[in-house]
Design brief:
- There is one protein chain.
- The chain is mainly alpha-helical.
- The protein has four helices and no strands.
- The protein is globular, with a radius of gyration of 18 Å.
- The N and C termini lie far apart (36 Å).
Length: 116
């Protein structure tokens, strides 16, 4: 990929793993998300360019929306940030996968306990 620094490739995997760990195991993890951002796409109700990733959820919400509005049943329904945040909870059974462990041996060698 052009224009992407090499360090980009190690970031997304580590970030999602740490995010799952925090959401599963930390009682102190603050999940408050306020609508304070001027940048479009950063607030809880902002739409993202994703649709059709959770068919059961999509079907349920499409029926509810048709009852409440004149929305077309064929229209693509895009997810908001908050919907994605809820749908990607690592403790729900509908998520396609969750990391099987949260071991970082390269950190343990340096004396860092990432799970503590």
């Amino acid at each position: 990929m052009m224009g992407v620094p090499p360090c980009f490739y190690c970031g997304p995997d580590s970030t999602s793993t740490l995010w799952h760990l925090k959401r599963l195991g930390s009682k102190d993890f603050n999940e408050t998300w306020e609508s304070l951002h001027a940048c479009v796409g950063h607030n809880p109700a902002d739409l993202q360019p994703f649709h059709g990733m959770f068919p059961d959820w999509d079907d349920k919400h499409a029926e509810e929306e048709l009852e409440d509005s004149a929305a077309s049943p064929l229209a693509k329904r895009y997810y908001t940030n908050m919907e994605l945040y809820g749908l990607l909870r690592p403790d729900q059974s509908d998520l396609p996968y969750v990391y099987d462990n949260f071991a970082w041996p390269h950190c343990s060698v340096l004396g860092e306990d990432m799970v503590a």
